[in-house]
């Protein structure tokens, strides 16, 4: 089996952690035997913009559509290009045009890493975020000026997109601990959230083996901090999922370890895998960027293409590496990007 992957290192530390994760994926392929990766590098980035006046060429999306998946580092270098131009011209463009309507983000306690939580209790959560509508809609506007000025932003919840996110969450839970928690706020938001609850109930009926509960987003956010081990899969709207998944990254101890996948559910376009962190301009070129977020993201890519067994091996090796405290400075260690990558590769080779 050959997987054709478009790699977009992007800006800043993306150029440091993507090559590291690609080395790891090649090692995974060797270990597997029957799997090969063919990476094609795309230079789309802020530097590309300075040279060409666009973040990607006109046929960029068409070229990317030929790949099985996209493996992206980070986009954004505000010293070169304003963020709204670079992110909307590349990252958000890909998410929208390739209908990557679901965003999945794990948050799991890594052995050996001190979570900032008082009582972390071995949490292992998957946040499934509806990635295409909800609170982040373009319906609304601004009227009047001065003290009469009004800004209106409508929430849009379609049955299709809501159901799609929930089915994704239930399917995922069926392969995990079998529990889905719905993030709601139907006590305060009186149209969209009661609708969200109804769809949740409807979808739950077709998954009798999955346990369910629902929590209001405010309480849920608090439980992420006080008792994260009670959760398995959490399904949330675009805004709620955005916030919850960042809390998830926070309780792991560093944004540098948090992975994410933008999933095209219908298989019409490639999905895109990228870590949660950005280009980290403050640490570029120092060789200290944590590669774990990008490497864990590679595990999600493996899972997505049905290589769950190899995905698990890779996660095991990441956990052995943190347990042995081969970690970068953001996690309180003193190892380099290359040290951590080598450790992971050597441990894979020893499997
Ligand atoms: P950031 O995630 O790049 O950095 C925040 C802090 O976390 C910094 O102190 C950084 O050094 C640290 N950090 C991040 N990743 C790390 C890693 N792997 N290892 C060690 N430390 C790490 O967020 P920031 O500073 O808000 O944004 C910088 C640029 O990145 C901006 O242009 C922003 O628009 C862009 N960005 C891009 C994202 C993407 O491509 N998905 C996501 C977030 C930001
Ligand atoms: Mg966010």
TrEMBL record:
<keyword id="KW-0479">Metal-binding</keyword>
<dbReference type="InterPro" id="IPR050501">
    <property type="entry name" value="ICDH/IPMDH"/>
</dbReference>
<protein>
    <recommendedName>
        <fullName>D-malate dehydrogenase (decarboxylating)</fullName>
        <ecNumber>1.1.1.83</ecNumber>
    </recommendedName>
</protein>
<keyword id="KW-0560">Oxidoreductase</keyword>
<comment type="similarity">
    <text>Belongs to the isocitrate and isopropylmalate dehydrogenases family.</text>
</comment>
<dbReference type="InterPro" id="IPR024084">
    <property type="entry name" value="IsoPropMal-DH-like_dom"/>
</dbReference>
<keyword id="KW-0520">NAD</keyword>
<dbReference type="Pfam" id="PF00180">
    <property type="entry name" value="Iso_dh"/>
</dbReference>
<keyword id="KW-0464">Manganese</keyword>
<dbReference type="InterPro" id="IPR019818">
    <property type="entry name" value="IsoCit/isopropylmalate_DH_CS"/>
</dbReference>
<feature type="domain" description="Isopropylmalate dehydrogenase-like">
    <location>
        <begin position="4"/>
        <end position="344"/>
    </location>
</feature>
<dbReference type="InterPro" id="IPR011829">
    <property type="entry name" value="TTC_DH"/>
</dbReference>
<dbReference type="GO" id="GO:0009027">
    <property type="term" value="F:tartrate dehydrogenase activity"/>
</dbReference>
